[in-house]
Amino acid sequence: GLLQVVKQCVRVPVFVMIRPRGGDFLYSDREVEGMKADIRLAKLHGADGLVFGALTEDGRIDTELCTALLAVSRPLPVTFHRAFDMVHDPVVALETLISLGFERVLTSGCDSSALEGLSLIKRLAEQAKGRIVVVPGGGITERNLQRILEGSTASEFHCSARSARDSGMKFRNPNVAMGASFSAPEYSIKVADVAKVRTLNAIAKNIL
């Protein structure tokens, strides 16, 4: 439903994340069934591309599973998401993604943010030599975007560009929390911030 509404509201390409749960990227057979079903439904309802990632227990790209998911995804372009940042050897992993046919890889440079992983992102972009698009992501804001784009030589980037908005609820039950203790407050909503998006776009256009 969200995909259908988004497609009606925007003109930019919409890539759908295929992620059956939080946590690690080692999936069970049932989870894989769900991922394949999600891919088919996303294609049916107008997705312009897909985003997913899967690893083996020893921290390598799960080539068997990725090959199967890519086959279901055709002919749409596919991005390997930040599961990449949990691999054992990013240099080997990048070559694996290229050989499998991924068009993009999203990465923070295997660090806690793209700024801290900037040197690896740049090395990966140099290694890629245009065979795959290396997309920095993770903690990117209007304050550090210029440094990340210039330092990585990246032509694309990923960020949430979000801000918190207070809930419109007037009655609030302070005794109940819907979810784990680390989840977002019940009466605060994360929304895409139009001003942040415009600022980030302006910075990028000035550099790229």
TrEMBL record:
Role description: May play a role in copper homeostasis. Can bind one Cu(1+) per subunit.
Keyword annotations: Copper, Cytoplasm, Metal-binding, Nucleus
Tagged with keyword Nucleus: yes
Assembly: Homotetramer.
GO molecular function list: copper ion binding
Family, per entry: Belongs to the CutC family.
Protein name: Copper homeostasis protein cutC homolog
